[in-house]
């Protein structure tokens, strides 16, 4: 209740006057995201890059340096180990072995024999071939692109083409910025992460549609106003709703990040970032893009009548 009382009923923030600042910031964010994704790359999980993934729980706090030396002596190629939550939980990533499933199973048994009685529990053992991983990556890209295009078509049919273009650009902004976030943090990028990106797009378009509804209603209501003023008013009127909705969603995601365990920590942090950037784009990117694309108020009925009378006089 305290937060609700802190938000004035009538805000008069000049968002449109700061649109160039917002655009410059977003362009810089997108450029940095693309550069980092290309140069630093994403930390692809076994879902996409293929290989062997073994998650173990040891009987005592794991000695990672000793485990690395033993795994390296097996001659299995690139092997990485990392603590996974508690000191007794370890995640082992092994590159795909030459051969088919038989060779992968042999590598897994070799690792198990090297670990011996030190392991209390094998919590997860997975193998994904590189062909399957590349197909999953391709399907994931298709799913994201088709989802964005589907949303853009829906917005076009429901509103006007300017709304569709603005929504598509804002959603693309959110997706690229989220990919940049994973490039910076190097959290594992897997199928769950891809699902999170689609969730972020869905959440962002929900916020954007709420603002767009207000914009369309106010453009019809205040036909004599400048579009600039109508857009500013629409953002301010819906701002309290947008902030409170995002705030309550973030509370759940923060709890998930703090108490959900290491397995979903990267995913929950990515969702937190996505909600923040999606809220920002709905306010500071989508609506200003309407102004840039030339959205207009409907022609007042009086002007329409005057136009018809003028046409009749010309004909006579």
From TrEMBL:
Q: Which Gene3D superfamilies match?
A: Multidrug efflux transporter AcrB transmembrane domain (1.20.1640.10)
What transmembrane ranges does the database entry give? 21-39, 140-157, 164-185, 191-212, 233-259, 271-291
Q: Where is the Protein export membrane protein SecD/SecF C-terminal domain?
A: 119-293
Which keywords does this chain's UniProt record carry? Cell membrane, Membrane, Protein transport, Translocation, Transmembrane, Transmembrane helix, Transport
- Superkingdom of the organism of origin: Bacteria
Keyword Thylakoid attached: no
Q: Which residues form a coiled coil?
A: none
The topology of this chain with respect to the membrane is: Multi-pass membrane protein
Enumerate the Pfam families for this protein.
Sec_GG, SecD_SecF_C
Task: Share what the entry says about its subunit structure, partners included.
Answer: Forms a complex with SecD. Part of the essential Sec protein translocation apparatus which comprises SecA, SecYEG and auxiliary proteins SecDF-YajC and YidC.
The protein's name is Protein-export membrane protein SecF
- Identify the species of origin: Kiloniella laminariae
């Amino acid at each position: 209740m305290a937060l609700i009382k802190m938000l004035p009923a009538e805000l008069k923030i000049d968002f449109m006057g700061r649109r160039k600042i917002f655009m410059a910031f977003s362009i810089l964010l997108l450029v940095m995201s693309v550069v980092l994704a290309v140069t630093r790359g994403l930390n692809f999980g076994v879902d996409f890059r293929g290989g062997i993934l073994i998650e173990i729980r040891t009987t005592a706090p794991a000695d990672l340096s000793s485990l690395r030396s033993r795994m390296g002596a097996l001659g299995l190629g690139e092997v990485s180990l990392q603590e996974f939550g508690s000191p007794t939980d370890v995640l082992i990533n092994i590159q795909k072995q030459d051969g088919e499933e038989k060779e992968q199973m042999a590598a897994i048994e070799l690792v198990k024999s090297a670990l011996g009685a030190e392991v209390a529990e094998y919590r997860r053992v997975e193998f994904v071939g590189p062909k399957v991983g590349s197909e999953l990556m391709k399907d994931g890209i298709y799913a994201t692109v088709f989802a964005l295009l589907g949303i853009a078509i829906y917005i076009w049919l429901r509103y006007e083409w300017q709304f569709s273009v603005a929504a598509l650009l804002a959603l693309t902004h959110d997706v690229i910025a989220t990919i940049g976030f994973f490039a910076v943090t190097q959290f594992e990028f897997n199928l769950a992460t891809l699902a999170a990106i689609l969730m972020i797009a869905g959440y962002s378009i929900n916020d954007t549609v709420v603002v767009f509804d207000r914009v369309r209603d106010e453009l019809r209501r205040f036909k004599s106003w400048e579009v600039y003023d109508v857009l500013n008013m629409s953002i301010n009127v819906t701002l309290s709703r947008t902030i409170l909705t995002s705030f309550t969603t973030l509370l759940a995601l923060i709890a998930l990040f703090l108490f959900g365990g290491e397995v979903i920590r990267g995913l929950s942090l990515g969702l937190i970032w996505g909600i923040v950037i999606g809220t920002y784009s709905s306010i500071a990117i989508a609506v200003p893009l309407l102004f840039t694309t030339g959205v207009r108020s409907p022609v007042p009925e009086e002007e329409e009548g005057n136009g018809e009378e003028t046409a009749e006089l010309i004909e006579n």
